[in-house]
Design goal:
Elements: E1 2-4, E2 14-17, E3 23-25, E4 31-33, E5 39-42, E6 47-50, E7 54-55, E8 68-70, H1 77-87, H2 92-98, H3 106-121, E9 141-143, H4 145-152, H5 158-167, E10 171-174, E11 181-184, H6 195-206
Antiparallel strand pairs: 1-8, 2-5, 3-4, 5-6, 6-7, 9-11, 10-11
């Protein structure tokens, strides 16, 4: 998000919860009353953006803007979704953040935006600041090829399984002499968090047409 730097009181922004009775006029021209559970971006005096949803008019960029402050961040999907629904305010920003963004892409996005401004608009980067904690490494998901084969109803050989996981952008390491695989999904695939998530992706990539058709069977209870 781009702010007009000259309009920011104190020449800086911070992330905080909205204050009691605080309101903001967003870029769509509407004024919204904020609750103390809503996350905002603020300058030294007031909220200048609803975090992950929409910026405010008070700090909006115009044709007269000469200095920008670019903010690149990651926001909690649940918080963004709750705020957008409460305000009745939907935007492309909220649409993306509600579904989760790549935590490792924050810095790259900032650098890309800055580079484009310099390349296409003749801008000049004055300063850069990184705040907050960097995301930690993702924990490995342990995949057992035999269990995956039982789950799919199709035997998937280890070389094919490894190749399929690599196609997903995963890092795969075997656990010594055992058949277990330790899989670390790419940072942009936050939906891959447990073995069954990987099973589904493997089925999708090797082709559903390869999965055998079976009729579910089981005992019928008394009516």
């Amino acid at each position: 998000h781009a702010f007009d730097f000259a309009k920011l009181a104190g020449g800086a922004i911070l992330v905080r919860l909205a204050r009691q009775g605080e309101s903001i006029q967003t870029l769509d021209g509407l004024t919204h009353k904020l609750s103390t559970q809503m996350l905002v971006i603020a300058d030294a005096k007031q909220a200048v953006a609803v975090a992950g949803v929409m910026g405010g008019q008070a700090s909006g960029v115009t044709d007269a803007t000469t200095t920008l402050l670019l903010e690149s961040a990651q926001f909690d999907p649940v918080t963004v979704r709750r705020t957008a629904r409460a305000l009745g305010l939907s935007s492309e920003s909220s649409y993306r953040f509600e579904r989760g963004v790549d935590p490792m892409g924050v810095e790259a996005a900032s650098a890309r935006a800055s580079a484009l401004i310099q390349q296409l608009a003749g801008g000049r980067e004055v300063a850069k600041r990184d705040v907050g904690s960097r995301p930690g490494a993702r924990a490995a998901i342990v995949v057992e090829p035999q269990r995956l084969s039982r789950w799919l109803g199709l035997r998937v050989q280890s070389p094919e399984l490894r190749g399929t996981l690599v196609r997903l952008g995963c890092r795969v390491a075997s656990s010594g002499a055992s058949a277990l695989m330790h899989v670390i999904p790419p940072s942009f695939r936050q939906d891959l968090s447990q073995p069954v998530d990987l099973y589904e992706e493997v089925a999708r990539l090797i082709g559903y047409d390869r999965l055998p058709a079976t009729i579910p069977s089981g005992p019928l209870g008394r009516p």
